[in-house]
Amino acid sequence: MPKSFDVRVTTMDAELEFSMPWKSSGQELFDMVTKTIGIREIWFFGLYFTDSKGFAAWLKLNKKVLEQDFPARQNPLQLVFKSKFFPEDVEEELITDITMHLFFLQVKQAILVMDIYCPPEASVLLASYAVQAKYGDYDPTVYPPGFLRSEILLPPRVLDQYQMTPEMWEERITSWYSEHVGMLRDEAEMEYLKIAQDLEMYGVNYFPIKNKKGTDLWLGIDALGLNVYNANDKLTPRISFPWSEIRNIAFKDKKFTIKPTDKKSLDFVFYTQKLRTNKMILQLNIGNHDLFMRRRTEDTMEIQQMKAQAKEERTRKQTERNRLARERAAREEAEREKEELQARLRHFEEEAKKANERLIQSEEKSELLQVKAKQAEEDALTISRKAREAEEEIQRVKAMAAKTEEEKKDLEAKAHNAHELAQQLLTTSNERQQEAERLKNELLSARHAELEAKEQLLAVTGGRSTRARLPGEYQQPIRQLPADHALVTQRQPAAGAGGSTSDLQEAEEMGVDLIGDEVDELSKAIEQERLEYIQKSKKLQQQLTELKTEMTVLKVSDKQTDEDRVHEENYVQKGETKYSTLSKITSGTTKTRVEYFEQL
After folding, report:
1. Which phi-psi region, left, alpha or beta, contains residue 472 (left: φ > 0; alpha: ψ -120 to 50)?
2. CA distances (Å), 158 to each of 120, 121, 503, in order?
3. What mean pLDDT comes out for the span 548-570?
4. Strands (DSSP E) along 385-519, which ranges?
5. Which residue has the higher pLDDT, 234 or 317?
6. Is 223:203 a contact under the CB 8 Å cutoff?
7. What value does the CA radius of gyration of the chain take, rounded to a whole number of Å?
8. For the chain, N or C: smaller number of CB within 10 Å?
9. Is 229 helix (H, G, I), strand (E, B) or coil?
10. How many CA atoms lie within 13 A of 44 on its CB side?
11. Taking Cα atoms as reference points, which of 3, 507, 102, 590 lies closest to residue 290?
């Protein structure tokens, strides 16, 4: 006979294998699993398996493992570690990150496989938190379009109801995902659970039952009490019995009897369809009732220490997060300043380049004007020389005038022509002199412009003095800024299943005060947090409404399920929520509600 047996335990994100001694109890196996995972809030969890008849069952901790109804010849034994009980308020009751992470994975899976109904617009919002928890902050350069193509983020029912492509779904998820920047994984998972816990089917275990009239109904067991639903509607409970009104639970064969604390009321009696489910119903009733009562008593020393450690860890994480946020802001500010300085430097370089080009053009123009002025002076001298030669020719001709009349006339004609030529040469000489004077003036103007260009260049490059350059001086064009104009900045760093088997009959004697003393005064920090939460809730509801309106035009009406129609009627038409419905159906006495149940 073997001395041990093998067990395979599947969690929401891992698979564990153990070799247990032959006589190991369920408690020993459970303790082994919780220590391996590192779970301290063991009261929420249990080991789930499928028995030899194919029914769901929870491992009994006070009984040997091999004495329980596992399928024959199953080796290793197959179990699933999952939450058996759910908290009333996830933010208040889930203390450690590992517990919250396992709850997140289990609830997310339940929504995706449609065990929990979730309206389409809320499904998109929850998907955005799931993406934030997995990928961290959104960065379009790291996560291009299509990065969610392989992810399962929405229930099939939602995908079938709308004429939308995967790209359109991804766009809507990403638009909300981008708003979660700075949110850590545990914060994103907590936001996911806070929204999910408001869904009508969250944390409810359903069992088919009948009343004395034989009407088919659903019994829902959750953290607050027992709910009764119509056979075709798991969203809207018809009657509710809070745990505070229940004194004792017992069953015989298929008959369940629940005794209220109100002794004037009749017993709440219902009938199950299968005897095997009765033990599971009883376990869930006892465990949920015990947790309900525990929440309304002072925390044990162990829980107080766990909460103190968790608070200290959250404070440390928040401090670290603030430090990283300051450093990120400082880096971003430094990058902005760097870009501004680079832009200014590029601007100065462009200005210097333009000034240098203007200086070169001015120098070239000055040299050209000098050449033209020199040429004009030479032309004027040549004309003047020719004018003197013409005048000498006139005098020589006059001297020869006495020779003959013809010679005289000829000489007169020549003299006349020479005189006209002299006049023309004189006029031309005057014009050339005027041109030379004009060119000299332009040369002076060009030198003034050159001087101004130098002064402007020196002003741009940060020069401290200017001087006029003498004719013929020449400077090389400026190719780079002086070293003393380097722009330097220096920044300082910114600164459950855990074996609870209490007898419900003791509830009558416990006298538990379900309402704690009211707090006299809220601190400013808490008040500010409350106001921020209200604003965030309003914004969230507005975003959900806008998304629903946007998606309505793409909706395929004939793809709606019964749950969609019930949710539409309750939430949209009547304005009812999960909690307003519970408040309404728990009004009145226990006796009237039991009588109403019998008439269903």
Report:
1. left
2. 6, 9, 44
3. 76
4. none
5. 234
6. yes
7. 48
8. N
9. strand
10. 22
11. 507
The band of 35, judged by pLDDT with boundaries at 50, 70 and 90, is very high
**Cα–Cα separations (whole angstroms), residue 446 to 318, 369, 415, 432, 454:** 69, 9, 45, 20, 12
Q: Mean pLDDT, to the nearest integer, of 144-158?
A: 91
Contacts of 93 (CB under 8 A, 6+ apart): 87, 295
CA distance 204 to 85: 9
Residue pair 46/497 in contact (Cβ under 8 Å)? The answer is: yes
Does residue 260 contact residue 246 with C-beta atoms inside 8 Å? yes
* 529 pLDDT tier (thresholds 50, 70, 90): low
473 torsion bin: left (phi>0), alpha (psi -120 to 50), beta (else):
beta
In this prediction, residue 152 carries a pLDDT of 92
What distances in angstroms separate CA 543 from CA 39, 155, 493, 502, 537, one per listed residue?
36, 20, 38, 46, 10
- What span, in angstroms and rounded, lies between the C-alpha atoms of 200 and 517? 29
* 48 and 79 Cβ atoms separated by less than 8 Å: yes
DSSP-based three-state secondary structure for 259: strand
Residue 27's pLDDT is 95
Which residue in the block uniquely carries the two structure tokens 């629903």?
548
Q: Is 474 exposed, middle or buried (0-12, 13-18, 19+ CB in 10 A)?
A: exposed
Pairing outcome for strands 4-10 and 77-83? parallel
Among the listed residues 229, 222, 226, 228, the one whose alpha carbon sits nearest the alpha carbon of residue 241: 226
Pairing, β 225-230 against β 216-221: antiparallel
Residue that wins the pLDDT comparison between 463 and 79:
79
Tokens of 306: 């766990």
The residue among 358 and 506 whose pLDDT is bigger is 358
How does DSSP classify residue 221? Answer: E
Residue with tokens 């430090």, as numbered in its chain: 323
267-292 pLDDT, tens digit each: 889 999 888 888 889 999 999 999 99
The answer for residues whose C-beta is within 8 angstroms of residue 111's C-beta and 6 or more apart is 118, 123, 126, 155, 196, 199
Of the listed ranges 145-154, 339-348, 416-425, 522-531, the one predicted with least confidence: 522-531
Residue 600 in contact with residue 211, Cβ under 8 Å?
Answer: yes
Q: Which residues of 451-471 are buried (b: 16+ CB within 10 A; e: fewer)?
A: eebbbbbbebbeeeeeeeeee
Count Cβ neighbours within 10 Å for each residue of 112-149 and write b for 16 or more, e otherwise: beeebbbbbbbbbbbbbbbbbbebbebeeeebeeeebe
Quote the distance between the C-alpha of residue 64 and its chain's center: 49
For the chain, what is the mean pLDDT?
81
Does residue 19 contact residue 32 with C-beta atoms inside 8 Å?
no
Q: Please report the pLDDT score of residue 515 as a whole number.
A: 33
- The candidate with the shortest Cα–Cα distance to 570, out of 111, 218, 235, is 235
Q: Six-digit token pair at 244? A: 């505070």
Residue carrying structure tokens 């153990």: 18
Per-residue pLDDT band for 85 (boundaries 50, 70, 90) equals: very high
CB contact at 8 A, 86 and 203: yes
Give residue 215's pLDDT.
92
CA distance 281 to 284: 5
**Phi, psi for residue 46 in degrees, rounded to 5:** -155, 175
Q: What is the pLDDT of residue 498?
A: 43
Question: Which structure tokens are listed for 112?
Answer: 């995706």
Query: Is the bond preceding 76 in cis, omega lying within 30 degrees of 0?
Result: yes
- Supply the pLDDT for residue 42: 94
Tokens 């032309």, residue located: 379
